[in-house]
Design a protein that fits this description.
The protein has 198 residues and is an all-beta fold. Helix content is 0%, strand content 61%. It is built from no helices and twelve strands. The chain has a twelve-stranded antiparallel barrel with strand order 1-2-3-4-5-6-7-8-9-10-11-12.
Length: 198
């Protein structure tokens, strides 16, 4: 098992954190993207359920998310959940549904999310060159969102980093930076060593 990909750069993805895995991330990004300094804890509770907790530092806030895998038999994936719930900032959870088609190299994602009073489209694509390198593009429609281009590099079995460039949907368009470092601990993971990486 290698370090997992924390969504793509902007969007959540329909594949789940493996059961028994716990990932800790440090994220730095432009203030136009979100809280510029964040830490994240993501836990694969069950084969079909994960939770995520974000801790923002500027401003001080806590954000929750959860995802349930309805279909998790590659190449087909289907998940529902809710993200960006911040009771501290009085932000309601944003429910989403996503479908994925995952092959050995190509990963395709399509879905929708309810953000406030708006329905927004989610699109994503990733290409795994090998177990170390992944190129990725994603898009979320609506004001305040972006199209992103980036890559993920697994430095070790458990450590990865993901830099990306955001180009905002709003005019005038802004080009923004983002990077996240993730370390994954394998606790009660029932999968064998022969299991393919996420």
């Amino acid at each position: 098992m290698h370090a997992t990909t924390k969504g793509l750069s902007q969007i959540v993805t329909p594949d789940l954190e493996p059961q028994g895995d716990v990932s800790i991330s440090a994220q730095i990004q432009s203030e136009r993207v979100g809280n510029p300094y964040e830490a994240q804890l993501e836990i694969g509770l069950l084969k079909w359920a994960e939770i995520a907790i974000f801790r923002g530092f500027k401003p001080n806030e806590v954000i929750f998310g959860t995802e349930l895998g309805l279909i998790q038999k590659e190449p087909w994936l289907l998940s529902v959940g809710a993200i960006n719930w911040s009771p501290h900032s009085h932000v309601n959870p944003q429910p989403f549904i996503e479908a994925g088609y995952y092959t050995e190299h190509h990963k395709f994602i399509v879905g929708g999310i309810r953000a406030g009073s708006r329905n927004e489209a989610i699109l994503g694509w990733a290409y795994d060159f090998n177990q170390t390198w992944r190129a990725q593009l994603d898009f979320q429609s609506g004001s305040g969102n972006s199209v992103t281009a980036g890559f993920t590099c697994n430095l070790t079995r458990n450590l990865q980093f993901n830099p990306a460039i955001y180009v905002t949907n709003d005019s005038p368009h802004h080009v923004l930076g983002y990077i996240v470092f993730t370390y994954t601990f394998h606790f009660w993971n029932p999968q064998t060593k022969s299991s393919s990486p996420k």
